[in-house]
Write a structure and sequence with these properties.
With 469 residues, the protein is an alpha+beta fold. The protein is built from 17 helices and 16 strands. It has helices at residues 3-14, 61-73, 80-85, 88-97, 119-125, 138-149, 202-214, 230-234, 240-243, 311-314, 318-322, 333-347, 388-393, 398-409, 414-422, 433-455, 460-463; strands at residues 24-27, 30-33, 45-46, 51-52, 152-157, 166-170, 175-180, 223-229, 246-248, 254-256, 270-271, 276-283, 293-297, 354-358, 396-397, 464-465. The chain binds adenosine-5'-triphosphate and manganese (II) ion.
Length: 469
């Protein structure tokens, strides 16, 4: 079925012109990016200001001292000289291969024959107890390409949730969750806006998928950007209720607003230019009957009120309670929760009120990172409190620590790796460089929190926990 579409997807993937790698010019062994001066804060200037490295040179004495102490403490686990020479991909591989546990797959897919499946079916079948997808599985890139290109055959509004979302069905019966572009990439979160009243960003959903992949987490369902023709690809397939919300704006653009509990009126419409709109498409997870999910309240959830603070914002002993109770009292889950917050700190996402796991996998499984639309909104400010679980528990997973340490030491930097990954998307540049540079700064800040935990005299093995994940 649809084998032509699959082959053409593969062909397109191999087409190097999709990767505008010309943007990268080697200089001094490090990849640097030329971009116009006058953009943002001064970064490392070279050649009298003409060329600047994409990444800021973020270093911190506390972090450097921590590395020296750790290397002295255990030169095998913390060999930072070796780490500098190890390519990031090799580090990911080395960390992964230490774990011999294979993990279960969703039992409902056991009898699905692998051959003849569409890529989206292979993705669903391939969901593992320890990862949402295998990055080396060609079905994953294939599915991403297909979400960006396959003809649409149906559009539905997704019920529930606060903002408009559509369920898009493609002609191979795969489905994706659609979030539209609301404003240009230059527009940052307004300083007086609460995170819970801010619009979601389609490009944050795309960037989160790539960031998660660079981190070697594989906990975000694949997301693709796509430019939609609102008339032919959305309105044409909409039911009466949705179709009725389409209109032509005074500027002669096609707009629609759908129906939902917050931003679904003509004052908050999604408008095309004149009839096309960018959107993010997240691969659909298996239906409940194939992969039942469990929703967990984040213990470090924010208050979602402009008047109240959450417990953890006032007291710093929440972790004492959390770490003694299931599911965080044994196994991987506390480290997973802290990974979630590391991930959110990097993107600047304050909106992680809940997270989900697959019931079939029990408690010994990864946290799904769905709903990342509220990150990448502020490039200059870092929301330190997103790291509260890290600095209140003083725990970080060893593999996560080593990945961040590598990206701190370089020469590969998170900004460059994420930028390269994002170049593959159709709506590239997915985020502006200022947001990528912020990633490097945040890597340093996470490590500084770890350094401060160690300086408290806590045992290294209690702070940097090696659970082999
Ligand atoms: N890729 C996906 N496949 C299937 N369901 C998904 C996917 N991503 C998210 N969902 C589900 O869709 C629901 C709403 O998604 P999301 O959280 O992005 O919307 P929201 O409007 O921000 O909701 P809320 O306001 O509750 O945060 C969630 O319950 C989630 O379980
Ligand atoms: Mn949400």
């Amino acid at each position: 079925m649809e084998s032509d579409a699959h082959i053409s997807a593969i062909r397109k993937r191999l087409n190097k012109s999709n990767y505008s790698s010309d943007d990268f010019s080697p200089e001094g062994g490090e990849e640097v990016l030329k971009f116009k001066p006058a953009e943002e804060e001064p970064l490392t200037r070279r050649n009298s200001g003409e060329t600047r490295t994409l990444h800021g040179n973020f270093t911190d004495e506390e972090v450097d001292l921590m590395f020296r102490k750790l290397q002295h403490y255990n030169g095998r686990m913390f060999d930072f000289d070796e780490l500098r020479l190890t390519p990031y991909d090799s580090l990911l591989w080395n960390l992964k291969k230490r774990n011999r546990r294979r993990g279960n797959y969703l039992p409902a897919y056991r009898n699905y024959d692998g051959s003849g499946l569409a890529n989206w079916e292979k993705f669903q079948k391939g969901i593992n107890q320890y990862f949402m997808y295998d990055p080396d599985d060609p079905a994953i890139d294939g599915m991403v390409e297909e979400m960006a290109t396959l003809p649409v055959i149906d559009v539905e509004q997704k019920e529930g949730g606060t903002q408009l979302k559509l369920i898009i069905t493609f002609n191979d019966e795969g489905q994706a969750l659609f979030k539209p572009m609301r404003f240009p990439r230059e527009q940052e979160t307004l300083p007086n806006h609460f995170y819970f009243s801010d619009y979601e960003r389609h490009n944050a959903e795309i960037a989160a998928f790539h960031l998660d992949r660079v981190l070697g987490f594989y906990r975000v369902p694949p997301v693709a950007g796509r430019v939609f023709n609102m008339t032919f690809e959305i309105k044409r397939f909409a039911d009466r209720k949705l179709a009725k919300t389409f209109f032509i704006s005074p500027a002669n653009n096609v707009c629609f607003h759908g129906s939902c509990s917050y931003y679904c009126d003509s004052g908050h419409a999604i408008c095309g230019h004149p009839d096309t709109v960018e959107a993010s498409l997240a691969a659909f997870l298996p239906p409940e009957k194939m992969g039942k999910r469990k929703t967990w309240r984040n213990p470090w959830k924010r208050s979602y009120s402009k008047h109240r603070k959450a417990y953890w914002e006032v007291y710093d002993d929440l972790c004492d309670k959390v770490r003694d109770k299931p599911p965080y009292n044994n196994g991987r889950r506390l480290q997973d929760l802290i990974d979630t917050h590391v991930f959110d700190f990097l993107q600047g996402n304050l909106d992680r009120h809940h997270y989900e796991t697959f019931r079939d996998f029990g408690n010994n499984t990864f946290h799904m990172h769905l709903d990342n639309g509220r990150g990448f909104g502020k490039s200059k400010a870092d929301e330190h409190t997103i790291l509260a679980p890290l600095y209140q528990c003083c725990v970080i997973r060893y593999s996560t620590f080593m990945k961040l340490a590598k990206l701190y030491i370089g020469p590969e930097k998170m900004s460059i790796l994420v930028k390269k990954s994002l170049l593959r998307d159709r709506v590239s540049p997915v985020v502006l460089d200022v947001h990528l540079i912020a990633l490097d700064r945040r890597v340093m800040k996470i490590l500084r929190e770890v350094a401060q935990c160690l300086e408290k005299g806590l045992d290294v093995t209690e702070v940097i926990v090696d659970d082999f994940f």
